[in-house]
Amino acid sequence: MEIKRNILLSVIAPAYNEEDNIIPLVEAFDVLRKQLSYPMELVIVDDGSTDGTKDRANSMAKAYPFVVVVSYARNLGKTDALIKGISASSGKYIAIFDADLQFDPQDIPPMVEKLRKGADLVAGYKVGKYQKPFVSRIYNFLGRVLFKIPVRDMNAMKVMRREVFEEIPARPDWHRYIVIWAYKHGFRLDEYPVKLRPRMRGKSKYKGIRRVLIGIFDMLSVWFQLTFARRPMLFFGTAGLITSGIAVLLGIIVLILRYVFNLGYRPILTLVAMLANIGVLLFICGFLGEMVEGISERTRRVEKKLQERGVGSAVFYPGALHLQRAYRTLGYQEGDFPESETAAKNVLSLPVFPELTAADRGEVSRAVREAVTELSR
């Protein structure tokens, strides 16, 4: 198996029941590929489709060598599809392109040029008639208000450096917030107008008020994590201070009523006691949160040192997972690494590894054993 190390651009195209779009998708990127001065690949991720998407993608991969297919049995959602697609890719730059062909592949090269000039992520902003403008405006408005992001559109086609995606938490539907996470992690953003075309084949997978509500709540969750996750006392301490302040204020009122006006009202006294207890509990939660964050910070430092030493980040061949991600997938805990021979066999059994020749398996086994030895030091 030839190890592709010179791919500059990997286009990740998640596809769920997009059988009719696979052939025009590949043909459009074949035209684009011939125009480029650098090598690219198209990674089609069959996200548990129930139609003929997988078979059609595999048949196109046989006819077009630049096409890579990743598939699995169950529909996991776009975020998981992107993770698996990027794990199977080789490019320095990653383009996220919907398989419904509502965007134009010809808009990708100018976005790549912006990356080559120094940007870390280029967000497209839609130009053309959009079927869900109200929903898009809500997301983009909240993004600007809550996060002050300097781009107009968070949910169009995006092209980024590979390391940007690695900073994104792998939670369902959080692919929508790649731009937010990139901006908050200090990556340089740029934008580019992308043509929006009507869907010609298949059906939209994003409909209904339920998805709008999920998107809004997810965005609030992202805001909470970015604002308070690493400063838990800021949240719990503020809430505790407000609650305790109200308790003190009501306590003063109770004392005035009792000793100035000779009036007693027991429910207010009960409320004062309850608010005071809640305030104390909130402060305790803040202290516990700070302790957990301290442990998390030490864990992040260890992970960073491992990355700097190159442990767990060697790509064995296109489609390989990082060794540490492979351990998580297999259910191992950090610090509980299996013996090298066992690790090699287990890692090779992951679904991300396609059929390998004996020589390829030997090469991957040696790489795994070397990495395990390094991790065990």
Write the layout of secondary structure elements.
Elements: E1 9-15, H1 19-35, E2 40-47, H2 53-63, E3 67-72, H3 78-87, E4 93-96, H4 108-116, E5 121-127, H5 133-147, E6 158-161, H6 162-165, H7 178-184, E7 189-195, H8 209-228, H9 232-259, H10 266-308, H11 323-330, H12 340-348, H13 358-375
Parallel strand pairs: 1-2, 1-4, 2-3, 5-7
Antiparallel strand pairs: 4-6, 5-6
Helix pairs in contact: 1-2, 5-8, 9-10, 12-13
What would your notes on this structure say?
Helices cover 53% and strands 11% of the residues. It is of the alpha/beta class. It has 3 domains: 9-227, Spore Coat Polysaccharide Biosynthesis Protein SpsA, Chain A; 230-308; 323-375, no CATH class. A 7-stranded mixed beta sheet has the order 3-2-1-4-6-5-7, sandwiched between helices. α9 runs antiparallel to α10. The radius of gyration is 26 Å and the shape is elongated. The two termini are 31 Å apart. Mean pLDDT is 77; it is low at 310-322 and 350-356.
